[in-house]
Amino acid sequence: MTRPFYSEGGLNAETYDVRTLGFPGEIDFYVSCARASGGPVLEVACGTGRVSWPVARAGVDVVGLDLTPAMLEQAERKRHRERPEVSARARFVLGDMTDFALDERFALAIIPFRAFQVLLGVDQQRRSLGCLRRHLRAGGRLIIDVFDPRLDLLVNERSTAVRDINPITHPVTGRPVTIDVLERLNDHVEQRLVERWRFREIGADGKALRDEEERLEMRWIYRFEMQHLLELSGFAIEEELSDFRGAPRAYGREQIWVARREDT
After folding, report:
1. CA–CA distance, 225 with 189 (Å, rounded to integer)
2. Predicted local confidence at residue 118, as pLDDT
3. Distance (Å, whole) CA 178 – CA 169
4. What's the pLDDT at 162?
5. What distance in Å separates the CA atoms of residue 85 and residue 121, rounded to the nearest whole number?
6. pLDDT at 235
7. Is the pTM of this model over 0.90?
8. CA-to-CA distance for 128 and 93, rounded, in angstroms?
9. What is the 3-state secondary structure (H, E, C) of 157-178?
10. Which strands form 62-66's sheet, in the order they lie side by side?
11. 46 CB contacts (<8 Å, ≥6 apart)?
């Protein structure tokens, strides 16, 4: 049975930190922006706290919001490693990025690592941006990272054996874990991709101790769409980058949008 990505924890959530290293300069970029904002910071789709904890270590209060209890559990497991003053700066809450209500307003909100693209329709995207705007202080900033669609990867409606990911070591059991992307479907009308991932934990005899399949669904967003979404939702675009080291926008790389809440 193929289940939604991260929905039940398992090998995907358990190995997230050892296989998801992010992009060069990514953590430093978000930490720098968090410091410049003065805080507090809201990280939406925070997952395992991969970004939230470095922000807290930098002396900035941060709230991490995520829809998946299994990922938030991974974030909370890291708390005991942190100094008390760092732990006090980080809070993690369960919530839907399209409809949440927190008891504070933020100087900066971030949605790292393409998480905004799990919203599969424009209506969801607009609701999320509206909710984010309401949670920002006057003049507060929003940073969103999405991938810039590469047309050569979107041509085929169906691809099999899309890619193999190098085996990794489970951080708790020490056993090897293999990850394969078995299939990809591209919906050209809805701008959606669906990938089927297989995670296997391998025992000493070479047999799979656990065999789990998950379905990743994302919507690709063209550059002009992202610009219109932000502007229609009450944001003024300040900058668009193609990497976390300040490179200008470029085809097929990242779309890193920095926008400011507009107040009329």
Report:
1. 15
2. 98
3. 9
4. 74
5. 40
6. 98
7. yes
8. 16
9. CEEEEEEEEEEEECCCCCCEEE
10. 90-94, 62-66, 41-44, 106-111, 136-147, 254-261, 235-241
11. 52, 64, 65, 66, 71, 72, 75, 92
